[in-house]
Amino acid sequence: ISCPCALVISVPMGFFGGIGSASKRGILVKGGNYLELLAKANIFAFDKTGTISDGKMTFVEEITVADDENGAELVISSMLAELKDANQTAIALCDRYGDRGTLNAISSLPFNSTRKLSAVTFEGDVTYAFGAPEFVLTENEYGKLKNQIETHTSSGLRVLVLARSNTPLNGETVPEDFTAISLLLIADNVRNDAAETISWFKE
Question: CA-CA to 67 of 20 to 30 Å: which in 21, 26, 29, 153?
């Protein structure tokens, strides 16, 4: 007499055990079929924020690209004072530069996920912006810094550019003649248990 009950029960129990083990480590697996695919996977892509990093950022370094009469520290501090952004990038910059700059702002454009930059026009119609280099700079200006930028991004750093234009903001229209002043390097804070989490996938 043969009874397949043990075999029938063992398969879902194996899936339940795997899903339960993953959940104890904070990993959500939607179902047994995904767990089965996970066993065959050899490449993993992570949303790093909250998974590998803790969601906070740390200022690393400022690299001067060109001289500016006001200086990067005064400009960034004055921009932060005007923009009052509360995102993690702004917090990291504020930790380094403060937000008590004395330049008088005329108009400003806060960061959003579409334009990927913040900009402020100060007295004298000079406009400064910081953000993703490929969004702030023209293709030609970006090309001058591309190799340097990619060197830092390939090492895991986030690279912002501080740039200047002698054209004022016009509503939400950003000047197209920005020239780079500085590159700002920012790092994500890696979670203490990130290595352990990745090691678990290898096992």
Answer: 153
